[in-house]
Design brief:
mainly alpha; Ferritin; globular
């Protein structure tokens, strides 16, 4: 059962941490329309994480809620990939981080529709509608930035250089992922790499961008080994509940 809990937490943590990162853009977007788009995607991701944390809490069966799992776990307990915890940087870096993750998440959730766990399958079905929009939005912006001005092209290329080493971790399965695959619960993340690579190449070609060659990979997040950036993120995100436990809106 441990593998099931860890797998659900991994999915939930990816959504929550990326959602929190995007929420940091609220009121700071380059134009009002994109400010709202970023905020809405953040809300989608946090909503997805809530459904997954509720499922995880029911599996754990310790009387905990989604709030306990979001606000009272320490850095080492989080299982999100390193990519989603990276700082926003400029708009191009936020877009590129989003696109790299969306291209993976879209194919992941398509396959999760066939999960042996009916609750997870239902969450995937609801989430996929949102994730489909996320991928369309982020891919369109990668194309705009890559095929735009000299400045926008420079910035998106800098984002690729900074974030590409974190993308490879998406396709290196943790032990709990492999166990989840055996039981029909989860998806073999390694099997998604070809689909992801095709998605990336198609968009990069249209954006006049080069797909980097395979290189070293930053990894560890799935097993609780994170960059210092997650510690700062959690310190801000968890402060209120840790300082005043049990608070409700």
């Amino acid at each position: 059962m441990n593998y099931k809990l860890n797998y659900i937490l991994h999915l939930a943590d990816n959504a929550l941490i990326l959602g929190h990162r995007l929420s940091e853009w609220c009121g700071h977007g380059p134009v009002l329309e994109q400010d709202m788009a970023l905020t809405n995607i953040a809300l989608d991701l946090v909503g997805q994480s809530r459904s997954l944390y509720q499922l995880a809490a029911s599996i754990q069966d310790e009387g905990k809620t989604e709030d306990d799992l979001a606000y009272f776990r320490d850095v080492i307990d989080f299982k999100n990939v390193l990519l989603v915890e990276q700082e926003n940087g400029d708009f191009a870096q936020t877009i590129l981080r989003q696109f790299l993750f969306d291209a993976y998440n879209f194919h992941l959730y398509q396959k999760l529709l066939k999960s042996s766990d009916k609750q997870l399958s239902a969450i995937a079905e609801k989430s996929l509608k949102e994730i489909t929009y996320h991928l369309r939005w982020s891919s369109e912006w990668v194309i705009r930035l890559g095929d735009g001005t000299e400045e926008s092209n420079r910035r998106i290329n800098e984002a690729i250089e900074a974030l590409w080493p974190y993308a490879g971790e998406l396709f290196i399965p943790a032990t709990y992922e492999l166990e989840a695959v055996k039981e029909g619960l989860g998806v073999d993340s390694a099997s998604l790499k070809e689909l992801w690579s095709t998605e990336i190449k198609n968009v990069f070609d249209e954006a006049n961008l080069e797909v980097p060659e395979e290189s070293w990979v930053q990894k560890g997040g799935k097993n609780g080994i994170h960059t210092e950036k997650l510690g700062f993120l959690l310190a801000e995100m968890q402060f209120l509940q840790r300082a005043y436990p049990g608070q409700e809106w």
